[in-house]
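tool_call: predict_structure(chain=1)
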Amino acid sequence: MANAVLRKLTEDDRESFFEMSRDFYSCGAAHTPISEEYRINFFKEALSGEFINGYIIEYNGKTAGYALIAYYSSQEYGGKIALFDELYIKPCFRGQGIGKKVFEFVENSGVVACRLEVERTNLRALKLYKALGYKEFDYIQMSKKLK
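tool_result:
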């Protein structure tokens, strides 16, 4: 990735990740805010790499954002799927093609499809995703919170 690098999240990234995560969850990109307890618990999961891969995005040697990618297999698609759980680019780095480079990295990682969620009010992200060829589903995604 020209000028942009994805590297695995490490314990040393804790404070930077938490700061970016707080911004992500307060800027309208996410459905609901989260507690610090959730953030701490999730960070442990991301470090383990068991269910989700956390990446720090660096651009010209500076932390530009993060990406959280979960992988699973789908019979419907015939193989491994990448789910963009979160993609955050710091405001000062937006509009420089970094998001597109992150998608290229993931789309070229051996998966057969990529999926993502986006808030309908996040017009900038919607524009990017549509420009990259992502389409809306005709069905409703549902969830049930257990804890």
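agent: The beta strands are 4-8, 53-59, 62-74, 79-89, 113-116. Proceeding to next step.
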